Amino acid sequence: MSEAATTTARSAGLIACTRCCRVFAPGTELCSRCGAPLSSRDARALQRVWAWWFAGLIVYVPANIYPMLITRTLVFSSESTIIGGVIELASHGDIFVALVVFTASILIPVGKFLAIGFLALSIEKRRFMDEHAQHRLHAVVEFIGRWSMIDVFVVAIVTSLVRFDAVATINPGIAAISFALSVAFTMLAAQSFDPRTIWDE
Amino acid sequence: MAEGVIRQQGGGNGPPMNEAELESLRACPHCDALYRIVPVAPRERAVCSRCGAVLIAPRARAFSRIIALAATALILMGAAVFLPFLDLSASGMHSRASVLDAVLAFSRGMMLPLSVAVGALIVVIPALRLALILYTLAPMLGGRPPLPRAPQAFRLAAALKPWSMAEIFLIGVAVALVKVAGLATVTPGPAFWAFCGLVVVTVLHDDVMDAETIWQAMEDRRDARRARRAAAADGPA
Fold first, then answer.
1. ipTM computed for the complex
2. Contacts of A189 in chain B (CB under 8 A)
3. Which one of B32, B93, B161 makes the best mutation probe of the A interface by having the most chain A beta carbons within 10 Å?
4. pLDDT for A114 beyond 60
5. How far out from the chain centre does Cα A15 lie?
6. Are B113 and A12 in contact (CB < 8 Å)?
7. d(C-alpha B51, C-alpha B16), whole Å
């Protein structure tokens, strides 16, 4: 296999900067080109991943229980959760938009928890997947994670737009905060992960 | 894709390398594979042969193009924030929202932190990132050396990239429009189009941006200035 033959900065006894890719002699602490701190592998990276992962999971619970939007009109008042919002959109016939919201607020966050947990476990224990697949999974999680923020922005726009004082107002619910935090925490978890460790023996 | 533009560095723990040899090496930031760099022509790409990450992708006249695009995006951001964004009308009633209103949607009570976060994600961070890139590159036009804290600025700009969510906000707007469509008629205002322009310009900007080119230019020019100063100090004596 060609992978086995790949020389890495580490196997050559050097330290690489992950910010600007420059390579330095062992023992160098700061990158002379971009000024970033150097480490061959960050031993505490995995600890940070788990910390952000758990924090994200904890705030994801209230995000699903409490209302995201509180609608008040002359005739009725309703509260909708994340799932409620998706069902409401689908029942109005906006299947495509319902799918977008479902993907961004439910599929991506849940998938992200599974993927980051899975990656962290396979680094700690043994491989369940080959390096290329793991690497691709990490790249996808990093790329797609930020898109979960869509629902928070939807709440921001809808609530700022629909204010016909007495007649109809829409207010944000507490779930908006915990959902935004959950997205941010899982983004930090994905960023804390050091993908170089996927390829280490 | 110009693979093999970069060659995998031969293995083994040979004798310790000197500074010049180290300077010609690059490691993939994603998988640590070690390469010896060779010149990459504009529009060619050097790709990590193991994990597929794009390592070098230079563009012709990159500096002036990046500066022009970043400045354009900043101006569009100004327009997007202050002009009316969406106009809502339902049975004779009007409601108008600017991007600033969307940011302030959470500003009451407990939701204040979220208001700050939304403002940061869609306005402050994208604008700050563009400003940092301008700070790094604009003084370097015409072959001049970078400003004192340019590496820190450029590093921060790279770190802010995932948190710059203007394009995600735009998708959020689209979903929100569908949500209120049954309730009222919505007309997009000038800020809406400015925001669309901003997203397009940012995509173009990120496409022209090649970090390796910029880091190398910063290092070379800093070294050159240092050498000139050293020569000037030695000269008269």
1. 0.87
2. none
3. B32
4. yes
5. 28
6. no
7. 27
